[in-house]
Amino acid sequence: MENNNFDIQEELKKLPGKPGVYIMHDERDNIIYVGKAISLKNRVRQYFQSSRNKGVKIEQMVTHIRRFEYIVTDSELEALVLECNLIKEHRPKYNTMLMDDKAYPFIKVTVNEPYPRVMLARKMLKDKAKYFGPYTSSQAVRDTIDLLHKLYHIRSCNRNLPKDTGKERPCLNYHIKQCEGPCQGYISQEEYGKAVQQVIRFLNGNFDGILKELEEKMNAASEALEFEKAIEFRELLNSVKKVAQKQKITDSSGEDRDVLAVASEEEDAVVQVFFIRGGRLIGRDHFYLRIAKEEPHKAVLDSFIKQYYAGTPFIPSELMLPEELDDIELLEEWLGTKRGGKVTIRVPKKGTKEKLVELAANNAKLVLSKDKERLKREEGRTIGAVKEIAKLLELDDINRMEAYDISNTNGFESVGSMVVYERGKPKRNDYRKFKIKGIEGADDYGSMREVLTRRFTHGLKEREESKELGGFTLFPDLILMDGGKGQVNVALEVLHELHLNIPVCGMVKDDYHRTRGLYYHNEEIPIDKSSEAFRLITRIQDEAHRFAIEYHRQLRAKGQVHSILDDIDGIGPARRKALMRHYLSLDAIKAATVEELADVPSMNERSAQAVYRFFHGKEESVEGNL
Fold first, then answer.
1. Confidence of residue 116 (pLDDT cuts 50, 70, 90)
2. Residue ranges of the UvrC family homology region profile domain (predicted)?
């Protein structure tokens, strides 16, 4: 909602000359840009000075600014940290946004335990265990762990050793000779520790010893005519060689570093990252970003580094880039604080390191050229479809859409769902479930009224208590109702009562329960069924329905569905189900006589009287109705 009381020119005069973060809002109070500044006074003023060359993206953003706010910090480093957090939380429209959100696996060795284990981990915790990685392939990690169990016979169970020693029989891994049975005390902690040290050497890339040992065992078994053993050793030998070949040497320093490069074309960009661990290239990955036309590569890299390393659990000691960034020293300080040790950002000018950066850049160009058409199709399915919907409804801009649906079983247990789409993609962290509390029976309109009232009342309350936007405090640009005129009017009534002005659109279905058009401003708007807008509307409708049904099933599966009939003495699950099958609604049960209730299968006169008394009060004579 536009804040008409905010005078931008007057507020500019009040800005302090201190470091901090500034937050730009549009007419709907959405956060559209977050930035940091050494001096808030100087930096924010620049956006509103006509003489400055701000670039196309910034000029467009400025036209949408209706108010701004700022947070003062003690240092520019604190401002950087806050800027990263706010961008990640709110994903503002005019910040260069990272489109991928990937978590890479580690190999974890629990050296903090008396009998350590080797396992896959998604996060690097401060638990005194040793972590190796991150790796780009979960399957490669699982294969490596499986190989380590075969080579060194490390346990894979969750038993608390040595406390649980001898309490249970050894597992299958002991019998197939992939574990030495520490759970039975068959191996000392000292001997087991030696095997663990070999695992750690292997994960550090020292393969020579195990390769020589396996080759000797294979040859010995072959000479002794134990061909099955020889084949087993040969397969292990090949597996180790396969792992060793993936650990391509890139330099002899043995350091951990990431190599970054970027390629861009129009509004598409790809950042390529090479992961070097212990001096070895263990993998690579690429990330898509949406950028402004002619946005410089160093600005893209700056945005990527802040967003990517704000969320990744591992930060290497060095980043290698193709060009200098403006805030290298500040970024180094921030990364070092997150890592707990020094981080250096370098721009190599010659030798192997320069070639590695060049290789990353070439790969980024290759990915961009190869996937350009796919990127365009993806944009058409998401952002393009949203633009089509906005054009159909004659709305200026749509970013966030919320859709609602109701699900129940013959009116006995109603639940509501709220799904959220931003820029045409589902934002599952913002999905919400509602268990209907104040409505009895199959009253979809009443249930929807309760859901919307609870959702927006809660959002308004959170807005009053906190200046930060997130969760329920983020209001949609468009509300989509899983129905036509009736559902839309319910939503409009709720919004009117809460003094909110949000467009509401119904998704109208035909006789076969298929979407045929949109109901907006008291008229039905047809949609071309071959358009991306129609496909997106259908996806949103299906998602809202799926989410509601899934929640309903979860409640039933956990035995949490509670009918009002459960509160009646003598009515257990069997009789409750019988009543639900026989009568289509709670009102029908209330209207039934004792004789009619007693005729329901599994019911008797006593239980029928209990039901009747429950709904009609003890003061009424049940006998008089017999």
1. very high
2. 259-495
Instruction: Give how far Cα 22 sits from Cα of 4, 32, 69, 230, 308, Å.
Output: 20, 11, 6, 68, 21
In a domain, 391, yes or no: no
pLDDT tens digit sequence for 551-600: 767 665 554 444 667 778 888 878 888 887 788 677 788 888 888 898 88
Going by C-alpha positions, the residue among 352, 333, 354 that lies closest to residue 344 is: 333
Are 404 and 553 members of one domain?
yes
Within-domain flag for 431: yes
Please indicate, yes or no, whether residues 546 and 423 belong to a single structural domain of this protein: yes
For β-strands 400-407 and 118-121, DSSP reports them as unpaired
Which residue do the tokens 């346990």 mark? Answer: 155
Residue 106 has a CB neighbour count (10 Å cut-off) of 23
pLDDT digits (tens, 9 = 90+) for 368-408: 877 767 666 777 788 888 989 999 999 887 889 999 988 87
How far apart, in whole angstroms, are the C-alpha atoms of residue 178 and residue 285?
34
3-state secondary structure 243-259: HHHHCEECCCCCCCEEE
For 117, residues 6+ apart whose C-beta sits below 8 A from its C-beta are 109, 110, 154, 155, 156, 157
109 membership: H or E segment, kind and range: strand 106-109
Residue 546 sits in the same domain as residue 616: no
Hey, which residues does 37 pair with through a beta bridge? Answer: 20
pTM: 0.49
Is 108 exposed, middle or buried (CB count within 10 Å of its CB: 0-12, 13-18, 19+)? Answer: buried
Q: Which residues of 473-510 are buried (b: 16+ CB within 10 A; e: fewer)?
A: bbbbbbbbbbbbeebbbbbbebbeeeeeebbbbbbbee
Buried b / exposed e across 440-459, counting CB within 10 Å, b at 16+?
bbbbbebbbbbbbbbbbeeb
Residue 116 shares a structural domain with residue 264? no
| Residues 304, 75, 298: CA angle, nearest 5 degrees | 25
Nearest to 319, CA basis, from 310, 327, 330, 328? 328
Among residues 42, 74, 95, which one ends one of the domains?
95
Residue 124: CB atoms within 10 Å? 16
The residues pairing with 262 across neighbouring beta strands, listed in sequence order, are 271
Residue 262: per-residue pLDDT: 94
Q: Are 407 and 414 in contact (CB under 8 A)?
A: yes
CA–CA dist 450, 453 (Å, integer):
5
Domain that holds residue 367: 257-371
Alpha-carbon distance 420 to 431, whole Å? 6
Phi, psi angle pair for 570, to nearest 5°: 90, -5
Q: Does 405 share its domain with 524?
A: yes
Q: Over 60: is that where the pLDDT of 355 sits?
A: yes
Report how far residue 165's alpha carbon sits from residue 190's, in angstroms, rounded to the nearest whole number.
16
Dihedral Cα 120, 122, 128, 130, nearest 10 deg: 50
Q: Is residue 384 part of a domain?
A: no
- Taking the C-alpha atoms of residue 600 and residue 587, their distance in angstroms, rounded to an integer, is 16
Across-strand partners of 505?
480
Are residue 121 and residue 145 in the same domain, yes or no?
A: yes
Number of domains in the chain: 5
